[in-house]
Amino acid sequence: MPESVRVRFAPSPTGHLHIGGARTAIYNWAFARRHGGAFVLRIDDTDPERSTDENVRAILSSLRWLGLDWDEGPEAGGDHGPYFQTERADSYRDALARLKASDAVYPCFCAPEELAAKREEARAGGGFAGYGRTCRRLDPAVASDRVAAGEPHAWRLRVPDDRGDIVFADAVRGESVFRAEVMDDFVIARSDGTPTYNFATVVDDIGMEITHVIRGDDHLSNTPRQILVFEALDAQVPVFAHLSMIWGPDGKRLSKRHGATSVEAYRELGYLPEALVNYLALLGWSLDDKTTVIDRETLAAAFSLERVSKNPAIFDAEKLDWLNGVYLRELPPAAYVDRMLPWLVDAGLLTAEEGAARREWLSELAPLVAERAKRLDEIVPMVAFLFDEEVTIDAGSRSKALEKEGVSKALDAAASVLGDIGEFTPAAIEEALRSVPEAVGVKPKLVFQGVRVAVSGSTVSPPLFESLALLGKERSIARILAARRTLQG
RNA sequence: GGCCCGUUGGUCUAGCGGUGAGGACGCCGCCCUCUCAAGGCGGAAAUCACGGGUUCGAAUCCCGUACGGGCUACCA
Questions:
Q1: Is A314 near strand B, with its CB below 7 A from some atom of it?
Q2: Which among A287, A307, A283, A306 has a CA at the least distance from the CA of A297?
Q3: B46 C1' to A20 CA distance, Å
């Protein structure tokens, strides 16, 4: 049996969790779950300028919200810590020492500005613009003297002369080949002693015993370099799987210009985490030829890298909306109330205490809006009339539904029949109101729309009879009469 | 410039040598109906980027071209 699967998600806390990062996390999580392996969370916080604790907290919170539980990492612990790169300096130092001992690296004294100039020149001339290996040709004794003398130097990996092309089987893209001659001796440790990304990542992946590296394909070109580091460190090279990018509607890399890009932003827009996970999972992966609604459990049971597509995907907010609606409609009333209540409270429709006290009433309201709202934020305007003291009727609705022949009569009659009802249930209300059209000689639609506008303030509302029942007998009748009073005749 | 990657309806995708190129979102129409939704039914929408091969047969295999993208740092 193969060793157990270990994957990692390694965000850099230079911002909140991005949609693209979230998808990478989802795939890693699903892959680990599918194989009964470990999902490790590591924080790549080596950029002190841009990394913040606030961002770390936000990322953890977004991952939790998405339901992506990690087995090892911040706040979870584990045998392979620490899980912050800034706390792993010792292991980078040890790894570098080993490479020095095995002569796999050499010091480079070239000035960065000088190298940049040469690079420009080479590029303009049209050719290989990598490091010219100047310091590799230095006499080892001379080089170590200069190091001993304290001359500033970086450490470069000595690409073995006999290393042929670097070939690896990417789990989503298939066999990938990088020519040996374009591999320059890249820097693994800066002159200030800190490790570069390509070095730190590999040392961590070795230390954390990562078996599969699933990440964005912006790292594809880094892979051969990293493979050389694995080899220099005499470690087992993991399986790589590179995911294509997520684009905005214009085919450009998804960015602020396209609107919401962070998981947090989608949460605030009224999306359900299960819908976002489902949508993102489908953006580059498919279960089969027809399934689009896939819950987290199914994903965890069926995810496979073989079915990840190679081409970049454009983020389609409309499909996300639709999926969100699907999940919203699937919620049982009690769960729906849990999701909806914070939005109602935020909108000032009621307090959290009132919400708790009126759970039963809210559970009756839930199914009425459940099939109408695609996002949680859409619920607020839909139900506000049930909470407001009185309704304001806009001019359009007024002229469309109230200022019509016979409506004043219909409202009088409606108020009257509703007043006669004993138990104010939807069924009783329906029975009463259905008698009105014939009684006053007005078309049913006109009667119902008149009552709807009188009570809700709009020609569009949740189902009428249920709405009236939720509003209550007194308030329903009061609103009908109030509207009636504004009409002639 | 160099290296690498990608290309199936507007969008996400299925397809892995022989299909009427399947599904989903969106769009249009009809039905249901107290409005709006939801739901049901039906429809329009793909010269499978283009050009060459290989093959009896190619969206599927090979080679070019075009377009798009990534990397090319002592950033991650």
A1: yes
A2: A287
A3: 28
Evaluate if residue A326 carries a pLDDT over 60.
yes
Which residues, 6 or more positions from A250, have their beta carbon under 8 angstroms from its beta carbon?
Answer: A258
Q: Are strands A246-247 and A313-314 parallel, antiparallel or unpaired?
A: parallel
A133: alpha, beta or left? (left if phi > 0; alpha if psi -120 to 50): left
Distance CA A320, CA A474 (A): 41
CA A447, CA A214: separation in Å to the nearest integer? 61
Instruction: Report whether pLDDT(A1) > 60.
Output: no
- Residue A288, number of CB atoms within 10 A of its CB: 8
- pLDDT value for A372: 96
What are A175-212's pLDDT values in tens digits?
888 888 888 899 999 999 999 999 999 999 999 999 99
Q: How many residues in chain A?
A: 489
Kindly determine whether the C-beta of residue A117 is less than 7 Å away from any atom of nucleic acid strand B: no
pLDDT at A107: 95
Scanning residues 95 through 114 of protein chain A, those with a beta carbon under 7 Å from any atom of strand B turn out to be: 108-112
Q: Is this structure's pTM higher than 0.90?
A: yes
Whole-number pLDDT of residue A23: 97
A214 CB-to-strand B distance under 7 Å: no
Task: Compute the distance between CA of residue A80 and CA of residue A124 in angstroms, rounded to an integer.
Answer: 46
Quote the tokens at residue A476.
């329903």
